[in-house]
């Protein structure tokens, strides 16, 4: 009987601890900071979500991480819509077609609800639309594949509203090596990639070094005449060996460049444990796919069973705050922001940061760690706007 009671007490304690992890008491001050200031999240994958399954995000949706009511609840008013192009479309005209199609989707969102949303093509647009109570939808291209080695395409996408380009994604493309691609085709940037960075500077398109290899990062930093961004990256010190994240030397170089790292919220990006879980799952799924075939019922059953028996160890709000703290400790408060990857990292978001309604939780966490109101305003948008304006000012002269 004593043993049964002990097990029951342990279970009750575990439930209490789990509820404590999820229960964030948000102060009026945190909510006020969220509602009265611009929040730029530099990477939200709504357009590709709509490509897979169209839903009307101008109203509440039953799934996904973003829609208008939740954005308003969280105070989000300037989410960069990610024009994500899968690496499988590299070296194909279909990459350019898809990019235009995804931009069409964003324009359709605004067309459905011009009283709620507006396209933003400048930092001034964001400020003006914020004052009107509109949610700005600036555009960033994730994977430069649609440029197709032609600077005329760069100008085309600038004219369509693209204001940053993530040079590569999960494989090397015609611009840059990828952190995920071990072949290191270019040993950094390609000759065209180096030319592209210069022309991006001239047009006022921010250079985004998320996803690229370390060598490509340093070459982009050296070539760019303007501050660069990491639109949705976290820190390698917390995920050793994960090149997709930035190490301390890169963070310091980014600071010297005047740039900003926008912290990715995905659990596998922010904790060593979740990152190891992800690598193990990928390895196990690869073996199962080779054994059963990726499209087989046996493979699908295996994946379901594996996920049930090996649940993802979710990161927490504190995990994300640790990344912000580390950037601030290394290079100061002026170089960190938010690049959540909502609608892009699936069911891997941390406890208390599950969708765009939860920015007040992040703000509360920053307040609890002693950040001032001005510091928080910089993290929410000020730092990114500074970099964006620096790129606009350079382009205006060139």
Describe this structure in words.
With 398 residues, the protein is an alpha/beta fold. It has a single domain, classed as Metal-dependent hydrolases (TIM Barrel), CATH 3.20.20.140. It is built from 16 helices and ten strands. The protein has helices at 2-22, 28-36, 46-52, 68-74, 93-112, 123-131, 151-159, 191-203, 214-223, 248-257, 267-270, 272-292, 297-309, 317-331, 359-368, 373-397; strands at 40-44, 78-84, 117-119, 135-137, 139-142, 162-166, 206-208, 229-233, 260-263, 336-338. The strands form three sheets. Strands 1-2-5-6-7 form a five-stranded parallel sheet, with helices on both faces. The protein has a three-stranded parallel sheet with strand order 8-9-10. Strand 6, helix 8 (191-203) and strand 7 form a beta-alpha-beta unit.
Short note summarizing the structure:
The chain has 398 residues and is of the alpha/beta class. The chain has 16 helices and ten strands. It has one domain (35-271, 313-397): Metal-dependent hydrolases (TIM Barrel).
Considering the chains and any ligands shown, give keywords for the structure.
disordered N terminus, 11% strand, three-stranded parallel β-sheet, 10 strands, 16 helices, globular, alpha/beta, TIM Barrel, five-stranded parallel β-sheet, 398 residues
């Amino acid at each position: 009987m004593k043993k049964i009671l002990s097990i029951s007490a342990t279970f009750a304690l575990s439930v209490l601890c789990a509820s404590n992890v999820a229960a964030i008491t948000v102060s009026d001050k945190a909510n006020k900071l969220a509602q009265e200031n611009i929040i730029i999240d530099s990477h939200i994958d709504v357009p590709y979500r709509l490509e897979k399954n169209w839903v009307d995000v101008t109203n509440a949706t039953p799934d996904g991480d973003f829609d208008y009511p939740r954005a308003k609840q969280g105070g989000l008013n300037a989410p960069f819509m990610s024009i994500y192009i899968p690496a499988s479309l590299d070296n194909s005209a279909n990459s350019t077609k898809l990019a235009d199609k995804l931009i069409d989707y964003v324009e359709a969102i605004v067309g459905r609800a011009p009283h709620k949303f507006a396209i933003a093509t400048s930092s001034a647009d964001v400020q003006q639309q914020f004052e009107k109570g509109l949610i700005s939808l600036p555009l960033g291209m994730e994977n430069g594949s649609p440029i197709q080695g032609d600077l005329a395409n760069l100008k085309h996408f600038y004219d369509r509203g693209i204001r940053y380009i993530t040079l590569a994604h999960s494989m090397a493309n015609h611009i840059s090596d990828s952190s995920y691609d071990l072949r290191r085709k270019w040993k950094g940037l390609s000759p065209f990639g180096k030319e592209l960075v210069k022309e991006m500077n001239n047009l006022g398109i921010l250079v985004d070094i998320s996803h690229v290899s370390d060598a490509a990062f340093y070459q982009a930093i050296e070539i760019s005449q303007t501050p660069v961004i990491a639109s949705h990256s976290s820190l390698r010190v917390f995920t050793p060996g994960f090149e997709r994240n930035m190490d301390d030397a890169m963070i310091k170089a980014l600071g010297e460049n005047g740039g900003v790292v926008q912290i990715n919220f995905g659990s596998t990006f922010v904790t060593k444990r979740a990152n190891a879980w992800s690598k193990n799952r990928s390895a196990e799924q690869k073996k199962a796919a080779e054994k059963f075939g990726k499209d087989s019922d046996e493979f699908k059953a295996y994946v379901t069973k594996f996920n049930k028996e090996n649940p993802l160890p979710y990161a927490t709000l504190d995990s994300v705050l640790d990344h912000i703290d580390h950037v601030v400790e290394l290079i100061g408060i002026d170089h960190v922001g938010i690049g959540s990857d909502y609608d892009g990292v699936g069911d891997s978001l941390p406890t208390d940061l599950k969708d765009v309604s939860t920015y007040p939780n992040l703000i509360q966490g920053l307040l609890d760690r002693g950040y001032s109101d001005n510091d928080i305003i910089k993290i929410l948008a000020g730092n990114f706007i500074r970099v964006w304006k620096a790129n606009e000012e350079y382009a205006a002269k060139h």
